[in-house]
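Case 386 in the screening queue. Each case pairs one protein sequence with one candidate compound; here the compound is flavin-adenine dinucleotide. For every case the pipeline is the same: read the inputs, emit a complex structure as tokens, and attach any notable structural observations.

Predict complex for case 386.
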Amino acid sequence: MDFTFTSEQDAWRQEVRDYIRAELDPRIIAGEEAYRQHYKLAMGFRKKLGAKKWIGIGWPKEYGGLGASPMMQCIFHEEMIYHHAPLDSQAYQLGPAMIKHGSEYLKRKFIAATAAQEIVWCQGFSEPNAGSDLASLQTRAVEDGDDYVINGSKIWTSMAHKADYIHILVRTDPNAPKHKGISYFVADMKQPGITIVPLIDMSNEHHFNQVFFENVRVPKTNLIGEKNMGWYVATTTLDNERSGIRDVARCRRLYDDIVGAMRQLKGVSGVRRDAGALHKLADMRVQIAVSRNLSYRVAWMQDNKQQPNKEASAAKIFATELEQRMCRVGMEITGLYGLLLNGDRRAPVAGILPYQMIVSIPATIAAGSSEVNRNIIATRGLGLPR
Ligand SMILES: Cc1cc2nc3c(=O)[nH]c(=O)nc-3n(C[C@H](O)[C@H](O)[C@H](O)COP(=O)(O)OP(=O)(O)OC[C@H]3O[C@@H](n4cnc5c(N)ncnc54)[C@H](O)[C@@H]3O)c2cc1C
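Case 386 output:
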């Protein structure tokens, strides 16, 4: 792997950085919590990105994308998250799977609209009894004329209450081996038969939902890929969820903010500057460098038409667990002041730390838990028996 960026990549990073600094409303700069409070502002910003074709950076131009490389997309994501800008994570997960496996009808109907942010998605994979063992999912879809009829429920569906469409895995052949009886559909979230029940998470936010489907009709044309082959389409979606670049960007921003507070001549309330604190930060600096390189490697492999798998798992584990370590170090260095929330003028690092600490916990569960990703490294990476 080449560890240096090309001049084109450096210029792209600078262009993205300049754009965010000029265009992002300061009310959404204060972290994810504020982003959720200012959802309309965030959507306005995402629409502007769509107009610049920056939502579908890596997608073909004929579908509203920019046709750029995976490394350019990686740099974009890193800069967006570092600057607390709102990303449409679902677009980046579903888009490549639909482009690779979807019919021309689906691509024409959905990809350009997603790139322009006219459509917002949620993901319907997990079920109450199918999380890590996703292939055990039980939501059923049965053929009926030109449609399939869906019954069942999905859980932990992030932002379903804001979504226009869901991309959903359902069982279409209950008699086949579990990986071979699953199909992948897109369904309109605003149709009869769909009930969305909020689940409030540990950050006290409405992010998750349980979504119930009762005789929900989906046209056959909404099938992505072939019937009963949805598992293999979904692996493309899942591969795009894991790279760690967003987690390490959040981590690096916290690190930079804490170092900035320590550097101030008069110091910031409660921020330690003793030798123990310096050593901890130095250690974090090394780990952040490692984590960035693991994530860049995933993008570099994609640039070179290789399929990252165990590499993506390693980058995801390292970055998400590092974010938790960085938050703990941040708390130790800022002490009781670190507990103060955004809006309190005594709060160090803009009061982001308590919220970031809480949301760093589910990051090691989302998109495949650390244990599941370690299983992937052990079996596919090291060739160990299952
Ligand atoms: C922030 C967040 C956002 C999410 N958003 C969505 C979404 O939008 N759409 C969606 O469909 N899902 C979403 N999920 C769900 C997520 O995919 C699941 O939570 C995850 O796959 C784990 O499944 P589970 O919660 O059922 O836990 P389980 O699978 O029940 O696991 C429980 C524990 O057992 C461990 N474990 C399970 N199997 C093994 C094994 N084979 N070896 C070792 N340990 C094992 C796990 O690591 C975990 O610690 C989200 C989750 C989070 C945290």
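Case 386 observations:
- The chain has a mean pLDDT of 93.
- DSSP finds twelve helices and eight strands in the chain.
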